[in-house]
Amino acid sequence: MKPKVAFICVHNSCRSQMAEALGKMFASEVFESYSAGTELRPQINQDAVRIIKELYNVDMNETQKSKLLTDIPEVDIVVKMGCNVVCPFLPSRHMEDWGLDDPSGKSDEEFIKTAKIIEEKVKDLAKRIQNNEIDLTVERDIR
Questions:
Q1: pLDDT digits (tens, 9 = 90+) for 94-139
Q2: Which CATH superfamily is 4-130 part of?
Q3: Residue 78: CA count within 13 A, CB half-sphere
Q4: DSSP string covering the chain, please?
């Protein structure tokens, strides 16, 4: 069974959405991608949507929406996108923080840079899962 990965941040409108889209694009044979946050946004960040469409030809408006942590299934791996505030907590077997700055309100260059970093990190995560570098046999940390 493929592990489920949740990309989370507070608003689930920009970085976590980009990660969900790129996870589905580059790592769907290794893991299932979800994204969620603690607050809903009426729509995904439209700059992120535009950049992902330009770079990868994926329309997140059609395939994704803002979701709460309670809207997604139980996951094995949690990836925090990098919150300057307290990141949401979600039970998982493995957790890591990618520490990405939020490009919202910044230039297209910042969005492109963020997308490329996420692409690299998604591919690296897939490789680590395939190489069994992440122990998914441990109990879910439910604190």
A1: 999 999 999 999 999 999 999 999 999 999 999 999 999 999 988 8
A2: Response regulator (3.40.50.2300)
A3: 21
A4: -PPEEEEE-SS-SSHHHHHHHHHHHHHTTT-EEEEEBSS--SS--HHHHHHHHHHH---HHHH----BGGGS---SEEEE---SSPPP---BSEEEE--PPP-TTS-HHHHHHHHHHHHHHHHHHHHHHHTT-S--SSPPB--
Instruction: Write down the pTM of the prediction.
Output: 0.94
Domain range summary for the chain, segments of one domain joined by +: 4-130
Q: Tokens 């997604």 sit at which residue?
A: 72
Tokens standing for residue 37? 């946050």
